[in-house]
Structure formats: C-alpha cells, structure tokens
Write a structure and sequence with these properties.
The structure is a homotetramer.
Chain A (H helix, E strand, L loop, with lengths): L1 H7 L3 H19 L6 H8 L3 H4 L6 H22 L7 H18 L1 H8 L12 H24 L4 H23 L10 H17 L10
Chain A binds a DNA duplex through α4.
DNA sequence: AATGAATGAGCCTTCATTCAT
DNA sequence: CATGAATGAAGGCTCATTCAT
C-alpha cells in the first residue's frame, strides 16, 4: 500500500484528505450509491472503522467532497483571466472556467447535482443544500455581472445566465453519458458557439436586452 | 390486491407488463438504487421469486423499462401535431413533445441518461446502449428534419438540433434538481424562448445557416 | 444441525417458534444485550438474514419472547389448583404458582423485569409496557381476590398482594444471583414461611385488616 | 474540561478516582452495557488509551466501581444512628440505611446484583464474587445483630434478616422498574410497614422466635 | 502518563437471487 | 407459473483494546 507510506509522513489534516481522495476515487468508479465505506477504507489503506475517526458517516464524506468540489469550482472561476478588458472577454473567460471545470472533472457534475437516486437529494439537509446552492451561485455570479456590463438589464442578465448555464450543463451531460457521440458533435465546440453568439447578440444594437432574444 | 385480480384476467404478456408497471412505480418513488425486487414484487402482487419468471434480473427490468420509456417518448413525438403547416410550427411541436415528455416524467430522464452512474458501465451492454441511442435518435429526428425544412443545411441542422436537445436537457436537469429555483426562472419558459429564437434565426435572411449562429 | 431436520418437518408457524426457542436459549446464555442475531440464527440452524422472515428486528424477538413468557405465567397461575376450598388454600396455590414459575425459569424474571441495561426499558414502547404490565397484573389478580376472600378490605388486599409479590421477587433475585447462599437460606422455604404467616394473619381476629399488619 | 484541571492538581491515586467517577456517571446514564470506554474517557477528560494506565479492562472498572459502591454502602450503614437506645430503633436505623442507599442510587442495585446478566459469569471471578458477598454481608450484619438483641435466636435472626433484605430488594426492584406504579403503592411505605411489623413481632411475648413468624 | 490513530472483530440489517415444492 | 423460505454477501457503523510516539 503506497497509501500506508504516505500516511505516516502525513499530519492528521492531510490524512483526512487522503481519505477524501480515496472516497473521490471510489465514488468515481462505483457511483455514490455503489461506493462502500469498506472500499473507501481499503483504497485509503485503512480498516473500515478508522474512517470514522475522520468522518462521522458516509454522508459526511459525501458532503465534504461536495463542499470541496464547489470550492475548487469557485477558485477556478475566480482565477480565470479574460483575454482583454472587454465585458465580452470577461463573460467568455468566466463561463469557460466553469464549463472546463466540469468537462475536466465530470464526476464533479454528479456530486454537484446529486445525480444519484434519481436526482433526489436524500440525506443532505436543506441547510446543506442552501450552502451548496450559494456556492454554485457564487461561481456563476461573475458571468452574470459581465452580462450586465454587456448591456443586459439585470433581469435579462439573470435569464441569459441561467440559460447559458443550462446549455453548458446539458452539453456536459450529453458528453458525459456518451450521448453526444450519437450526434457526432463536440460539447466544447457547441458551448463556444453558444457563448460566441451570446456575446454577439449583446453587442447587436437591435437586440432588446430587456426581454427575450 | 387489485394487482392480483388483474393478473388472473391477463395473459402472460400483459402479466409481464404488470411487473413493469410496478417496477416503474417503485423506481419513481424510491429511485433506481433505492428500489428493491421485494418491493417491485409486492407492488405487482407477486412474491419475490415470481418476478424471475418474467425477467432474468433486476437489470433486465431496468433495461425493459428503459426500452419502453423510449417507445413512449417516440410515440409522444410522433403524435405531436404542429399548429400549422409551417416548418417552424413543426419544429416547435416536435421539440416540445420530447421536452414535455421529460418534464412530465422526470424519472424517465434518469432512465434515459443513466443518471445513476452505477448502472451505466455495469449492466448495460454496448449493444443495448446502441439500441437505446438509436431510439433516442429517432425521437429527435423529426426536429432535425424540420430544421432542414427551415433552411438549415444538414450539418447545421444536426448541430442546431444537438444544441437544442442539450439546452432542453440542461434546463430539465436544473429544474429537476431544484437548482433552477436558485435563479428564479422557469424551465418551460426558457425552453420556449430558446425554441422561438431558433425559429426566428432560421427565418432571418442574414443568417448563414451553414456555420454557427 | 438437528434444528435443520426439525425445520423441514415443521410448518411456518412452528419454524417461527424454533427461532424463538433459539433466541430464548441465547438470551439465557448471553443475556439480552450479549445475545446477537447471528448467534440466534446459528442456534436455530439459519443464516442471519433468514431470521428476518420471522421477526422484524431483534427487539421484536425480545417482545415476542416476553409476551409468550407472560402467557405461560398466566397459564400456570390459572391452572393452579388449591388443596381445599378455603380462601387460604386458594391464595397459597396462586402465589406458589407464580413463584414457582419464576423459580423454575429464572430467565423469565430477566425478561419480565427488563433486568438489562440497568433495568431501564429501552426499546419497548410504552404501549408494549402497558400490555406487559396488564398481563403481569392478570397473573397476580387471583391472589388479590383470595386476599379479599380472606377478609382483607380491597385496599389492604392490594397492599398485601404487592408486598407478597415484592417479597417473592426479592427472594428469587437473591437466589438467582447466588446471593442467598451467602445467608445459607432457601428462597422457597422463606417464601412458604411468608405466605403461611400471611394466611395466619388474615385469620387472626385481632388483625385490623384495614390498615397495616 | 474541568476534569483536566482537577487532573493536574491530583496525584496518581486520585486520578484513578477521577476515572472511576466518570465511569460511574456514564454507567448511570447509559447503563452498564451501554457505557463505552470512549465515553468514560471523554467524561474523565482523557483519551481512550489513557484509561488503560489505570485499569486493565472495562471489567476491571466495573469491579472497582462495584467494590467502591459496597464500601459506600457499608459506610452508610455504619453511620446510621438509631433514634434511641432500643434494639428496635437500632434495627430500623440500620435497615433503613441500606434501603435508602439503594433507593437513592438505584444504579448501585445493578452493580451489586449483576442485574446485567452478561457480566455475572463473564468477568467476575469467584474470588471477586466472594469478596463482594462478604462486604454485602457486612452491611447487613448490624441489622442481624439487632435482631438478636431483640430476642431472636441466631438462626431466626439470620432468617429474618434474609427475609427483610429480600423484601426490601424486591420492593426496590418493583419501584425501579416502574412495576410498583401498577399497584399504586410506594416502596418506602411498604418497607417501613414490614420493618415496623417485624419489630412488633419481636416484642410480642407469644412469638416463638425460634422458628418462623 | 498520556495521546490518538488504528485495528479487528463484531453488530443489526438489507437484498438479489435460488430452489424445492 | 408461483410460492416463500433460505442463502450468502454485503452494507454502515461501533467498540474494546493496542501501540508507536
């Protein structure tokens, strides 16, 4: 077990992270319902009981994973630098950031959207849910602000941002489930296209940016 | 048990359907991973062992359900009648048909997209997968044809149809996971908007319907 | 496993009883908290899961055992025949019946008094508790009626009956825990003595059977 | 943690007592089987491993607690002062002492009588058992001596003392298990009554204090 | 003495599936 | 076809105890 070696050189905090890594890997391979504490422990080089020194329950692991995933998402969006100072470039940079984040780590989509149990949030309390929603919202807020800068009225910016998010998520889902191959299309290309058209539309003088496009 | 009564008046084939109905109901209530054979049997008015007269395994039930779900999807799309004879109305009718199908029966989304990760690689053979893909493709083909009628070149029609599907799926996912409330938006409205804009775009003379919008 | 042989010749109802027998034996050997479903199953010749065809939970087994124990107690009391037609003989017969029941089956004392978990009723709902109390009360009622026949006023009969019960239970506890050997006494003798004195007291003319003795 | 503060001001011996206090508290709250070493440690301001510096095992703690409980019982009996110089008052004082001790600390009953069956045969050696018996005997000896002073012959005094003890224990058990409410009686009253009658009986000239009452 | 991470065995329970009837 | 008892494996979790530090 390389995990065991790592363990001894590691502090308590990073050992917790080790468990989290193992959990992420298992969730990735088996799905969230398919993942077992035993398997997570095995992968972390632990016996099952040891996990409970770090997390109170399986759901606590799930929550920690989810939480951490959203932090990384926000970090990615925050770090995204626009190509130039235009609002259009800003929108593109921020939107690409979240899209790329989910495209690169498709399992984060599952985590973030509870793509388990028929999408129904099961164990997560609504308090949790709200926290998670808030962080997801944070990740999308920069794009929304850029849309306002681009000339959309607030309500329209919100609407367009929602649509943009849905578009991206839909493409990612199609890609992730292999369905997009059916159409011989590429999710990234299609997203770029939608994004480009949105920027163009914003700049078009005839667009009534109050109501719909 | 009314199920038991139905059973005696029914032939072997429709008794199989009875089991399927029970399975659908249980999947709907408990999610796919949460559903148990015991519960399906109970709801069908059978004892657990009896189910195996009709299906080889739990996954076989899942497959049959999936298959049947796609048939109903296709039936819904086929039955959809456009408001008038225009290609635009045709596109709208066909696209709304599948959107409404999934909006009304959100659990079908799970089935159709293996949103329960565990099931995707485990049980479904790629042969199965191809058959399912084909039927999903069938359901979307009328929309694609309408896009061609609207003036899109075949490649562009395919691309637009894919984007449209992704958009709808993304909205449905946001709605179904409760995430859309975060944006105070409505999935149906946004979909109608996207669809309307697509038709307008098709009719716009300046649109080069070869490449992207 | 002789249990296995018995099983095949037995109907469902008696197989349930088989499990109950095994449970009683295990509770006897290991105590209630020490008993495990695995062990009960093993002793009944089953795999652990099979038990759950007969009982919903470990507590359900405990409840069934308790319930059945109280029925046997009542049966023993009901069946007890007095030596002659006098009220004194009636009291002696009925009181000896419950005393002998618990003396012969000391584990029933544990069951009936929750001599577990520091005597605290844990899983048993108060509804259960009331039912059990009622049946215990039933077993003691004949003695109380005999005391009334002996001339005690109802309130005094209740008090004397309670004291008699406590006396017997105390002796049984001392015997059961081996403490009585410390005194080189015999529980049965002491109980007989108390009972005899009680009857004598009832017959004594000077006794004011309204208040205490 | 105030426990931690106490610890530093305390010698090794009293640190052991600290653990014992914590154990008593936990046993009191959770029952003997329900108590965990973790919880005892937590309450003592220690980590689990530290407990093993003071006690070899959980059962060793149980034994120590039991032992100490019996010392307190003896102390209570020794300290009990009779109302006057009569043998009757002496008996009453001593008997009330142990009765009150168990009535006030019902958990001590559990400890003293192994009412948790599991522990009786498992951990306590017979050597232990004898020591405990001896101390319990010590606590009851003053009462026995008072009975002799009251005029009972030694054998009768032993018998009456045993019966008295059983009576008290039975009442306490009924009270502690809530069963006495079923009879709408009070354990203390009934005990006082029994005790009073015993003293009267001793003083009655007709009583042949050789055999039974 | 004390820490606290870790073990290993065990707990109750659930479930897809099999098979004699 | 249908029953339903039974299996065997697995699930999440707890706990007394050990041991390197």
């Amino acid at each position: 077990m390389e995990a065991r070696l790592q363990r001894q050189q590691a502090g308590s905090e990073s050992r917790r992270a080790l468990v989290l890594d193992a959990a992420r890997a298992v969730f990735e391979e088996q799905g969230i319902d398919g993942a077992s504490m035993r398997e997570i422990a095995r992968k972390a080089g632990y016996t099952p009981g040891a996990i409970y020194s770090y997390f109170d329950s399986k759901e606590a692991i799930y929550g920690a994973l989810l939480s951490e995933s959203l932090e990384r998402l926000n970090a990615a969006v925050t770090a995204a630098e626009p190509a130039d100072l235009s609002a259009g470039a800003l929108l593109q940079a921020k939107a690409r950031a979240w899209f790329t984040f989910f495209a690169t780590n498709p399992r984060e989509l599952d985590l973030g959207f509870y793509l388990v149990h028929g999408l129904a949030p099961r164990g997560l309390t609504s308090e949790w849910n709200q926290r998670l929603n808030a962080r997801l919202h944070d990740a999308l807020a920069p794009g929304e602000r850029a849309l306002v800068q681009l000339g959309f009225k607030p309500a329209a910016a919100l609407r367009e941002n929602t649509a943009l998010f849905a578009h991206g998520i839909g493409l990612l889902l199609l890609q992730h489930t292999g369905r997009i191959r059916m159409f011989r299309q590429d999710a990234g290309d299609l997203f770029a296209q939608y994004l480009g058209a949105l920027v163009l539309r914003a700049q078009s003088p005839k667009e009534q940016k109050t109501h719909a496009a």
